[in-house]
Amino acid sequence: MKEVFTGSFTQQEPIPEAGMTAAMAVMQHGRLHRYNLAPGEVPEVARLEQEFAAYTGAKYCLAVASGGYAMATALRALCVGPGDTVLSNAFTLAPVPGAIANVGAVPVFVGVTEALTIDLDDLERKVADSGAGVLLLSHMRGHVCDMDRLMEICDAADVKVVEDCAHTMGARWGDVPSGRHGIAGCYSTQTYKHMNSGEGGFLVTDDAELAARAVLLSGSYMLYDRHGAAPDRDVFEGLKYDMPNMSGRMDNLRAAILRPQLAALDAQCAAWTERYRVVEAGLRDVPGLTLIERPQAEAFVGSSFQFLLLDWPDAAIRGAVGACKARGVELKWFGAAEPAGFTSTYDHWRYAPAERMPDSDLILRGVLDMRLPLTFSLDDCALIARIIADEVGEAGAGLRAAE
Ligand SMILES: *Cc1c(COP(=O)(O)O)cnc(C)c1O
Q1: Is residue 294 domain-shared with residue 214, that is, in the same domain?
Q2: CA-based torsion, 217, 219, 223, 229: positive or negative
């Protein structure tokens, strides 16, 4: 009998008990809006901002309504506007080009390598050719590129780097936390990310003016002194008449849910990576399957797993995906012709036309992806790997026999 997996790839853990208790307290007092305070009260959102700033080592932190909002706000606070070009990854998810479109700017997509990171040679070329002043760098699926070289390329051309850390909250390159290499880091606390408040996000920076602009943009009603990790009042003076209110605040209910999760984040990240390593070990020697080798300097969070089926015909990939699905293992295929679920590739974003990147297309065509929620045990992960090894191995052997 063939083994079957019965877990759900989209089932996250419950909110920690402490988060539920804190959320009840907020509901009981009724002051859910971040600026609605009792005398002397420091609200949950301000505390969360202080704690997330401390966690990342950033001077300033703004909690917002989503990761996409954080990215668009970072771009707007950097004065990116209609018609400007913004460099970004060809391999990412829809909220990233969406954030660029949000400010009326035009993405210039940069290719992807077999390490599933941004192609730094292509970046170097496009930095020179595009004239873009900003790179919105997506650490897609938690893969972190050589950040030292990336920052060298961008610093040399005075290109500002905004990091999309939706999949790297808690990760590092060398000693530097993800989100702390560029001028701003953006994070998401949407259900499928590393902390779960349904929707939510953060923007962190050491740049006082950027932080003040972002606070004003988020809809602070001139109540910026009620923030937890914002710049001093005087930084706002020169800016407050020029920043529109584009409401995207976080509320106290979500912050209450998130604070205990932040306290547990490092342990959660370690648990994800433990699961990742089990799957990786189980897929080491599968014919036709290419693993993504992780660099030494990359302290990643293994909340999802990717592998490549390079040069496989579409029908064979579809066959392997179908065979895994029949045994309960849901693989997402980035090479599919139509965007489905959370997968899409740069040619699906027709509002942002891009020139073709044949080398990247070959890689994207072969990317398979799955989540590893913490509701999976290590045994679950070993079983998932056995099923993939079985089905992909069989299809791979069939392909080679046909050659
Ligand atoms: C989830 C995600 C975001 C942010 O998403 P929101 O849903 O807006 O919080 C940004 N980038 C990537 C790559 C993502 O997966």
Answers
A1: no
A2: negative
Report yes or no on 10 lying in a domain.
Answer: no
CA 188 to centroid of ligand 1, rounded, Å: 6
Q: Report the atom number in ligand 1 closest to the C-alpha of 70.
A: 8
Classified as helix, coil or strand, 327 is: coil
> How far apart (Å, rounded) are the C-alpha atoms in residues 210 and 119?
28
Residue type, 33: H
CA-atom Rg of the chain in angstroms: 22
Boundaries of domain holding 41: 17-263
Dist. CA 8–CA 226, nearest whole Å? 41
Which protein residue has the closest C-alpha to ligand 1 atom 6? 67
Q: Tens digit of pLDDT for each residue in 225-275?
A: 999 899 999 999 999 999 999 999 999 999 999 999 999 999 999 999 999
- Atom number, ligand 1, closest to the C-alpha of residue 188: 9
Rounded to whole angstroms, how far apart are CA atoms 55 and 177? 9
Same domain, 360 and 275: yes
Residue 310's CB is within 10 A of a number of other CB atoms, namely: 14
Query: What token pair was written down for 179?
Result: 């989100």
Any residues with Cβ below 6 Å from ligand 1, and which? 66-68, 92-93, 95-96, 138, 140, 164, 166-167, 188, 190, 201
pLDDT tens-digit map of 123-166: 999 999 999 999 999 999 999 999 999 999 999 999 999 999 99
pLDDT in tens, 184-221: 999 999 999 999 999 999 999 999 999 999 999 999 99
Q: Which amino acid is at 334?
A: F
Number of domains the chain is built from: 2
User: Could you give the angle at which helices 17-29 and 252-263 cross, rounded to 10 degrees?
Assistant: 160
Q: Which residues contact 181 (CB under 8 A, 6 or more apart)?
A: 147, 150, 151, 161, 163, 173
Range in 84-98, 108-122, 256-270, 336-350 the model is least confident about: 336-350
Contacts of 387 (CB under 8 A, 6+ apart): 3, 4, 5, 324, 327, 328, 329
Percent of the chain having pLDDT more than 70? 99
SS3 category, 299:
strand
- In the reported structure, the alpha carbon of residue 403 is separated from the centroid of ligand 1 by a whole-number distance in angstroms of 41
